[in-house]
Design a protein that fits this description.
By secondary structure, the protein is mainly alpha-helical. 43% of the residues lie in helices and 8% in strands.
Length: 72
């Protein structure tokens, strides 16, 4: 928890750096295991950032993990 606290505390500086009060928040981005390594995730992220720009946001934020989810 201490590491996550420091990450969030340091991340707050980005608002001042880009002069924004809000950021476009990308919550969940996932691809099926059969579609990985083809650039689909990167394309989805790029399109999400482009959408944020179109909506007037000065920046975007996302959290990422490489956690594998056990499929049943």
């Amino acid at each position: 928890m201490h590491v996550l606290y420091n990450v969030n505390k340091d991340a707050n500086e980005i608002y001042d750096q880009i002069g924004a009060r809000t950021l476009f928040d990308i919550k969940i981005l996932a691809t099926d295991k059969n579609n990985r390594r083809g650039g689909l995730g990167s394309d989805l992220l790029k399109r999400s950032v482009a959408l944020g720009k179109c909506l007037g946001f000065k920046g975007a934020k996302a959290e990422a993990t490489g956690m594998k989810i056990k499929e049943s």
